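Sequence, please.
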């Protein structure tokens, strides 16, 4: 007999409704979990606005790619009923040259959108069925809510590793969202001597000030920001992280970084044409590095970072909602004035 579950379904532009939908079947190599927590991600907003996922449009769609749960059907996998697991949303092939060299985030099949909750149904639902290959057992020390934040933390972790950060480096973060704030926290732990945040307004800064990982806060709108940042960092930052995906934020990184320094670009833009003053990079030999998602090894390391108490991602959570409030969550995330930093849904 067909079983049904509650799911928050994207059924049109800017519209999510909680509906009763069939529980998916467990196929070969798949497991079913009862979803415990699912982080609401800024990258979901684009789908919410357009009313559809990134794959073929088959009507109603379930987003949600930052999630954990309890195994209720292990299928033919190594998992047992009752295991707590977190899913890595990256649908990498495991066969191509990139995957074989340990760079699963660059898998030839992934193309920036081949993730659970982007091209196939995700976890804003009571149950989720997916490949056992993408599931990882959670240590007891990692709470459900913390596991719902592994996704932004892995992005921050990969970016800090890519930057080549060394002890005593001065670090600038441009972008006050959760990934920017997590980069600041990890840079501090990794031995940065000065960690600074450039922001456009104060709406999301309250939590950052409370947590206290940043030494300096710059106003991105200040016409003298270049001089102010150069003075405050005594000649420029060694590393600047761009975590917005906009021309002005990249320009702010160029204003802050020292000659020969490194700019790591994490923010990605829906508009692919971002203006950039080439000579500011060429004539000062700035290293520009792109950074996306993380490797499979870094995903496992991110779980360890939380389990070992290096970072507690729960401190970035501003709201925990039931499925019924997911529509409200997106309205808040899309607002220009709401101070929300991270929402986690518990179906
Ligand atoms: Zn995400
Ligand atoms: Zn691959």
């Amino acid at each position: 007999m067909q079983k049904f579950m509650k799911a928050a379904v994207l059924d049109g532009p800017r519209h999510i409704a909680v509906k009763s939908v069939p529980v998916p079947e467990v196929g070969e190599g798949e497991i079913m979990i009862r979803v415990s927590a699912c982080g609401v991600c800024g990258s979901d907003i684009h789908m919410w606005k357009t009313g559809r996922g990134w794959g073929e449009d088959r009507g109603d769609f379930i987003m949600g790619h930052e999630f954990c749960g309890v195994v209720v059907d292990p299928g033919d996998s190594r998992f047992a009923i009752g295991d707590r697991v977190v899913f890595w949303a990256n649908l990498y092939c495991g066969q191509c040259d990139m995957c074989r060299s340990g760079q699963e985030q660059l898998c030839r099949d992934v193309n920036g959108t081949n993730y659970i909750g982007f091209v196939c149904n995700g976890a804003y639902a009571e149950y989720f069925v997916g490949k056992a290959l993408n599931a990882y057992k959670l240590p007891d020390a990692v709470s459900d809510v913390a596991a719902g934040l592994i996704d932004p933390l892995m992005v921050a972790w990969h970016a800090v590793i890519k930057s080549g950060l060394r002890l005593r480096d001065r670090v600038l973060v441009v972008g006050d969202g959760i990934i920017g704030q997590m980069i600041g926290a990890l840079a501090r732990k990794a031995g940065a001597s000065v960690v600074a945040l450039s922001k456009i307004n104060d709406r999301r800064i309250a939590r950052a000030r409370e947590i206290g990982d940043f030494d300096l806060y710059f106003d991105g709108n200040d016409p003298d920001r270049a001089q102010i940042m150069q003075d405050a960092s005594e000649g420029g930052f060694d590393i600047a992280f761009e975590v917005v995906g906009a021309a002005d934020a990249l320009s702010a990184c160029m204003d802050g970084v020292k000659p020969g320094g490194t700019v790591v670009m994490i923010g990605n833009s829906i508009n692919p044409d971002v203006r950039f003053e080439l000579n500011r990079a060429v004539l000062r030999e700035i290293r520009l590095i792109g950074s996306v998602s993380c490797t499979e090894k870094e995903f496992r390391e991110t779980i360890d970072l939380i389990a070992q108490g290096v970072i507690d991602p729960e401190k970035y959570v501003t709201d925990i909602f039931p499925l019924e409030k997911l529509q409200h969550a997106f309205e808040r995330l899309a607002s220009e004035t709401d101070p929300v930093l991270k929402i986690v849904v518990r179906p």
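The chain has two domains: 4-149+317-345, 153-290.
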